[in-house]
Amino acid sequence: MLPVPSDRAVLAALGGAGYRLTAPRRVVARLIAGQRGHFTADDLVARSRTERLGLGRATIFRSLDILAGLGVVERLDLPTGDHAFVGCEPDHHHHLVCSRCGRSTDVEDSGLADLVADLGRRSGYQVETHRLELFGVCPDCQAGRATLKAAG
Amino acid sequence: MLPVPSDRAVLAALGGAGYRLTAPRRVVARLIAGQRGHFTADDLVARSRTERLGLGRATIFRSLDILAGLGVVERLDLPTGDHAFVGCEPDHHHHLVCSRCGRSTDVEDSGLADLVADLGRRSGYQVETHRLELFGVCPDCQAGRATLKAAG
DNA sequence: GGTCTATTGAGACTGAGTCTCGATTGGTGG
DNA sequence: CCACCAATCGAGACTCAGTCTCAATAGACC
């Protein structure tokens, strides 16, 4: 149940939206598919450098921008203040992020929608968007089966 | 019901925690107390400059750091990705932020704690912290009584 | 294969936030 | 009221994420 999209899924999303399937974008897709948990733009830049993939800094940021727009990855604000991304399914949901290994799990809205509607009603605000982020320790890490953040 | 702490409250929090009540910190307290909605560190830097308050950049960042630690202000991640702060009461709660005027309202946990506990139970995660941010249009702005973000 | 336009990469640039370090000052004891 | 000393300050250098520009490149479609 890893929320990591395959590189094919990433490319399909790009193609479906009318973006060109360029060589650099294929590489980015592969990098994202290789991420187990959340990752920063700079993680990808670093991998691109160490693995001599030849991706430009700007290209990585641009690609992530597009993919975030398509909902293939989602922006995440870590408690540290860092900006990160996670690969995910493109519908509205929230993230439960492991503070140890970085792996994240999608969480469906369940009762939250009601709660948000209720808060809106009581406050008089016309709520447009909301964001719920949960941070904790995943079952594997609790069990000591610590899966490292580093990906293949 | 503005969640803006008075400058006295800010100073009391500092003093109570053993921090010195220096002249620059009094100025920062006054600036924060004068903010109606959320504000960035740079907003304060800018006001300090235009009003010739003589605050150093580092001092403002340091003060905000301390105050965030004390719970007098809270860090906020705007949907734009910017980092901002809001003055607030120092207990656990969440923010409902007006996307038009920037004013924010504290929201108590109500049903959220249960929801979070439930999500934790179902996912197997041991949830440590969570963050809920709501963005929408406040009653005043809906009514056209647009209160500008700029403060006194 | 040729064309046309989206895309790319290098690198300059911006702006937030941090760090250093000598100068200053609040708070306390005398 | 004054002196003392650690906490704090400000200036400015620095770092690092993210953006922008622009000439060169390369998908997609014919």
Please count the beta strands of chain A (DSSP E, at least 2 residues each): 5
- How many H/I helices of chain A? 6
Radius of gyration over C-alpha positions of chain A, nearest whole angstrom:
17 Å
Relative helix content of chain A: 40-55%
Largest sheet of chain A: 3 strands, mixed
Shape verdict of chain A: globular
User: What percent strand of chain A?
Assistant: 15-25%
Could you tell me which chain pair has the largest interface and how many residues each side has?
A-B, 36 and 36 residues
Give, in spatial order, the strands making up the sheet with the most strands of chain A: 4-3-5
Q: Which runs of chain A of at least 5 residues are low in confidence (pLDDT < 50)?
A: none
The CA-CA distance between the termini of chain A, in Å, is 17 Å
Oligomer: homodimer
Task: Please characterize this protein's 3D structure.
The structure is a homodimer of 152-residue chains. With 152 residues, chain A is of the alpha+beta class. In chain A, 40% of the residues lie in helices and 20% in strands. Chain A is built from six helices and five strands, in the order ααααββββαβα. Chain A has helices at residues 7-16, 23-33, 41-50, 57-70, 112-123, 139-142; strands spanning 73-77, 83-87, 94-98, 104-107, 126-137. Chain A has a three-stranded mixed β-sheet with strand order 4-3-5. Chain A has a two-stranded antiparallel ribbon with strand order 1-2. In chain A, strand 1 and strand 2 (83-87) form a beta hairpin. Chain A is globular and about 55 Å long. The mean pLDDT of chain A is 87. The interface between A and B is large, with 36 and 36 residues. Chain B binds a DNA duplex (30 and 30 nucleotides) through residues 19-25, 40-42, 54-59, 61-62, 81, 83.
